[in-house]
Design brief:
Distance between the termini: 46 Å
Helix content: 40-55%
Number of helices: 18
Radius of gyration: 36 Å
Shape: elongated
Mean pLDDT: 77
């Protein structure tokens, strides 16, 4: 039985080196990743690095003069904040100013162009049936060629991965007369799949002459808009469909897969962005489409999508297509071969990763209840924040220095373990903060710096608990190596309970607060987790290794573990009572 016990002891003694090697390799790997990411320093918040301040002014929509109100403004602030600050740690600030303005402060280092698009884009998404379409522009119309009938890589799929590819059906050489006839026929045709459309035979037969005249006038107006629309003109694209309601037919522009501008006549919206439950950017490895955006519909949205695709599948091209319209622009126009009942769809095209993630983000967090215009863009300096950061770093250095002095004076040789542990904890905190910048948009602000300074005390407290448990065992008369192994389980429980309470407080603070306080809570929670990692994988293994050294094992007076200085009890030993002498007479 002695041999196995000895083997287990030898195995246990080899583990400290493994733990130390593990954490050092992890630090080296994280440091390498930090430099490879191109962000060797943590990203700073707007109070420390400055940034951009954007003023957005709300605009009333046609037919909704009272849309600008406190409820809609607060909803817009909430949606914008989730778009640019989804995890609560990027330090972007969104707040109202007055009755119709929203101020967005974006830290330096953030892609300001992308952020401006995120906050200012209304992100109103509609699925509309295509009534007519053709390549736009005088050059395309004058020069018929095979490339004019282009194929789009946009897709619509259900969960069974049904895919479809759309193609332009209208000839680029169509005259204005044929364009007008196509539009009018489409508006009047019974094949229009809109439940809200007035194109059904029963509705037509029962309609009054005045209603017919109104519908005819609307069709003539839409025909004129479509004929005159030149999507190669930026000004005309911006005004296409302006003022139209979601329940009315409209005109719109979009690019096909060949990069040519396509113009459309679209029916009333059948599915809206509010019918989308979730959206995500995904890289398509199965085709050359690259990045795409996948969407999951709500239960109501799934039924609407199944209904519209079922109706479209019965029509001839181009009226078997539907257009995915985002803020008035057609981003995809797939055709449908059968009803898609899986409750999901995807948007693909010439997206890069940033564009796909931006679109998915806007769809996921919802459309703004109001339209906004960008009133002003100004640069914010970080002069005041820089001074506060300087003062905070001085305070942190003083606090760290006092902790080190205390450790050296009171624990003496044990400070050789505590100080490197503090350095490892600091290195891990710095590297992870630097990596979190490009990963989740984490930005270091003044409250976050305060959280890191508070963490010095939390980490030092863990060392003190462990050291005091070892001293207690030595006071009981045990030698150092057994004292370390017996003290660790008791110290471990105390450290875990203490860190759990700190982490729980940080988590609650992060959930119930907003703005800069979340930066403090996030940093406090992060450093609390790292404290557990450092104590388990660095402090304890290093203590186990040094306990084998004569300087510590012999209880040198400068080791901090001198049994005499600690008031150790002598080891208890069982002694025999002397036997009574035998009387010779009795013998």
């Amino acid at each position: 039985m002695a041999a196995p016990k000895k083997g287990r002891s030898a195995s246990a003694q080899s583990r400290p080196g493994r733990s130390l090697a593990f954490i050092l390799i992890a630090i080296a790997a994280l440091t390498g990743g930090m430099f490879l990411s191109g962000h060797p320093t943590p990203r700073l918040g707007i109070d420390l690095a400055g940034g951009t301040s954007i003023t957005l002014t709300a605009k009333n929509e046609p037919g909704q003069p009272n849309a600008i109100n406190k409820t809609n403004m607060n909803t817009a602030v909430d949606i914008m904040n989730r778009r640019v600050n989804g995890l609560g740690v990027s330090e972007a600030e969104v707040q109202t100013q007055g009755s119709d303005n929203i101020i967005v402060n974006i830290p330096k280092g953030t892609n300001s162009k992308e952020a401006r698009a995120q906050v200012g884009t209304t992100a109103k998404l509609y699925f509309r049936p295509v009534l007519a379409t053709e390549v736009s522009g005088s050059a395309a119309s004058a020069s018929p060629s095979p490339s004019a009938s282009s194929s789009s890589s946009s897709k619509a799929t259900d969960k069974a991965t049904e895919k479809a590819t759309s193609s332009s059906s209208a000839s680029p050489t169509s005259s204005a007369t044929s364009q007008g006839r196509a539009v009018t026929d489409a508006l009047k045709a019974d094949s229009t799949p809109s439940a809200s459309s007035s194109a059904s035979p029963s509705a037509s037969s029962s309609a009054s002459p005045s209603a017919n005249a109104s519908a005819s006038a609307a069709a003539t107006k839409l025909q004129a808009q479509y004929t005159a629309l030149d999507c190669t003109d930026k000004a005309q694209r911006a005004k296409a469909g302006e003022g139209s309601k979601e329940t009315d037919p409209t005109v719109a522009c979009g690019k096909n897969s060949s990069g040519q501008w396509q113009k459309y006549v679209l029916g009333p919206a059948e599915v809206k962005g509010t019918d989308i439950k979730s959206a995500a950017a995904v890289f398509d490895t199965q085709s050359a489409a690259g990045w795409k955006v996948t969407m999951e519909f709500t239960s109501g949205g799934s039924k609407k999508f199944a209904d519209i695709t079922g109706k479209l599948a019965k029509n001839q091209s181009p009226q078997n297509q539907f257009a995915i319209v985002l803020d008035g622009d057609v981003v995809s126009d797939p055709f449908v071969q059968q009803a898609l009942t899986g409750g999901s769809a995807e948007i693909s095209g010439s997206f890069d990763q940033t564009e796909a993630q931006s679109l998915a983000n806007m769809l996921k967090y919802g459309s703004l209840p109001l339209d906004f215009k960008e009133s002003s863009v100004t640069t914010v300096t970080a002069a005041l924040g820089g001074e506060q950061l300087h003062a905070g770093l001085i305070a942190g250095a003083i606090g760290l220095g006092l902790v080190v002095i205390y450790l050296v004076v009171y624990y003496r040789g044990l400070s050789i373990i505590a100080i490197p542990s503090l350095l490892v904890s600091g290195a891990l905190t710095y590297v992870i903060m630097a990596l979190l910048g490009p990963t989740i948009g984490f930005a270091l602000n003044l409250p976050a710096v305060c959280g890191a300074i508070v963490a010095i005390g939390i980490t030092a407290d863990s060392f003190i608990v462990f050291f005091e448990r070892i001293r207690d065992e030595i006071r009981e008369g045990r030698s150092l190596r057994p004292a370390v192994e017996r003290a660790w389980p008791r110290a471990r429980r105390t450290i875990l309970v203490s860190d759990f309470v700190s982490f729980l407080a940080a988590a609650v603070l992060f959930i119930v607060t907003v703005g800069k306080v979340q930066g403090f809570a996030f940093t406090l929670g992060l450093t609390t987790v790292l404290d557990v990692v450092v104590v388990f994988f660095f402090t304890k293994p290093l203590m186990t290794l040094l306990a084998r050294r004569k300087f510590y094992a012999s209880g040198h007076k400068w080791s901090g573990l001198d049994p005499k200085a600690l008031g150790a009890k002598p080891p208890l030993r069982r002694t025999r009572r002397p036997s009574a002498p035998v009387d010779p007479k009795e013998a």
